[in-house]
Known about the structure:
This protein is of the alpha/beta class. It has eleven helices and 16 strands. β4 (56-62), α2 and β5 (88-94) form a beta-alpha-beta unit.
Amino acid sequence: MKKVIALALTLTMGGALLLGCGDKETSGGSSQAASSALSGSTSDSSGEKKASGEKFKVGFSMDFTTNVWRAVLLEKMEEAAAAHADEMDFVVTNANADSNKQISDVEDLLAQDIDLLIITPYVTEPLTPIIEEVYDQGIPVIVIDHESGSDKYTTFIGASNSQIGQKAGETIVELLDGKGNVIELSGTPGMQATIDRGDVMHEVVDEYPDIKFLANVNCEYDQATAMQSMEDILQNVNPEDIDLIYTYNDAMALGARQAIVDAGYGDLDIKILSIDAQKKAMEYIKEGAMYGTFTYPWPSEKAIETALEILNGKEVDKYIELETVLITAENVDEYYDPDSDY
């Protein structure tokens, strides 16, 4: 379990609470336009391997696996690659939430003569140059989940975090009818997902001056950190003044909900809106303890499928968007799987 991040709580003159998140690393660019077709160019060596029947070597640079969604992402990626073990050798690195290590990991993969790179960048700006370097060497690059800061990659696969941010903002406005108090629990600064889930949401909600954000806390997408943060918030904000909690993933939503229950406020009508569609979050929705969560599909199988298409000379789209859906009490039974491990 991660060490809980200490939080400095400061009451503003208007009575709202703002918790400092520290300086953010900013993204090097915006989301790419969808569906621009691009030939999946391959290196000479991969073409020779195809002709000789030799297996391809695919490198996967993972950013971190300390929350459940990302651990499952890696598990599903390895399962998908194993299903094609006769066609590829699959080499995995894990940056453990360290941009410098991820850059070094990619350099190590290059030294192993990979034919294609799959990468989920930890933080956009520092990882963009190494992604560009790989691409400029003629090695196809599949970026998944978090986008790169330039268009120097072969294809991106993932859900649109900007679309989620837009829908989250619209949902907050609708639930509060344009007036109310919100707690915002955000994720790692500098991640494209964090930027889109936050900034785009605010572009919508900030048009409504009667919606106030009582706290905005960076909880690093971590359940224990979110739980501690929510405990601190409840010491400084009257729980009855909180109308809605928006968290950037379900792990933080579960932590926030547990803190509310432990503090004796579980019966208050505090709506929780989140992202990921974890099994436990859907159970909370069924129980009425959460309002909703957006699905955030794993790109694992699609990434392996697309990698093989590229290596075999097929054209792929520049942007492959995975659909996201808001799950609420109205449709949760369509998505809830009691046998799911996640």
